[in-house]
Design a protein that fits this description.
heterodimer, A: six-stranded mixed beta sheet, five-stranded antiparallel beta sheet, globular, B: mainly beta, about 0% helix
Chain lengths: ~110, ~120
């Protein structure tokens, strides 16, 4: 059974700082890995999707990397802004036909002005 | 208007009551899902449906039932609510053309409190 862990559970940084969020998974047989953002009282918004054959994906100030062999993914946020404050979740997508997502418990990020 | 709409957004009820959470979508997607989110536990899959005649149990289906009334509507029922079903519930959809990526589109959630 896939297990996904995110460390730290919470992170507080000053505005402008570069930061890294970590995600680890126990079963390396994944189809892809996704990063989501969740704002308070809102649903999840997809940020980045990395296929199992890829090493990284970039979108604006966000860069996600994937190392299947070590069971790790990182989300790098450059030049953080207060608007980046949210909970960030990663989800590993199974390689089975159902393409099930297994979510981590998230990292709550606060960027201080 | 949101593409994936959940009702009610907030509900407080008592132990033993029957509760229904509804989800409707305008995205034209064939696949719909119900997830539960608890603090510190991430999202866990309750039920999913790949079309109107297809219902599948997820990781934590005990105590829940679902109905796929139409392609655009998927409801979650708690026949006799209990306090440990207090959680934030999310509906999500996906399209068969993007299903291979596991890409999901989420509603804004329904917060349920069982006293």
């Amino acid at each position: 059974k896939q297990e996904v862990t995110q460390i730290p559970a919470a992170l507080s940084v000053p505005e402008g700082e570069n930061l890294v969020l970590n995600c680890s998974f126990t079963d390396s047989a994944i189809y892809n890995l996704q990063w989501f953002r969740q704002d308070p009282g809102k649903g999840l918004t997809s940020l980045l999707l990395i296929q199992s054959s890829q090493r990284e994906q970039t979108s604006g100030r966000l860069n996600a990397s994937l190392d299947k062999s070590s069971g790790r993914s990182t989300l790098y946020i450059a030049a953080s802004q207060p608007g980046d404050s949210a909970t960030y979740l990663c989800a590993a997508v199974s390689s089975g036909s159902a393409r099930q997502l297994t979510f981590g418990s998230g990292t709550q990020l606060t960027v201080l002005p | 208007d949101a593409d994936v709409t959940q009702t009610p957004r907030n509900r407080i009820t008592k132990t033993g009551k029957r509760i229904m959470l509804e989800c409707s979508q305008t995205k034209g997607h064939d696949r719909m899902y119900w997830y539960r989110q608890d603090p510190g536990l991430g999202l866990r899959l309750i039920y999913y449906s790949f079309d109107v005649k297809d219902i599948n149990k997820g990781e934590i289906s005990d105590g829940y039932s679902v109905s796929r009334q139409a392609q655009a509507k998927f409801s979650l029922s708690l026949e006799s609510a209990i306090p440990n079903q207090t959680a934030l519930y999310f509906c999500a959809t996906s399209d068969w053309r993007t299903a291979n990526t596991g890409e999901l589109f989420f509603g804004e959630g329904s917060r349920l409190t069982v006293l």
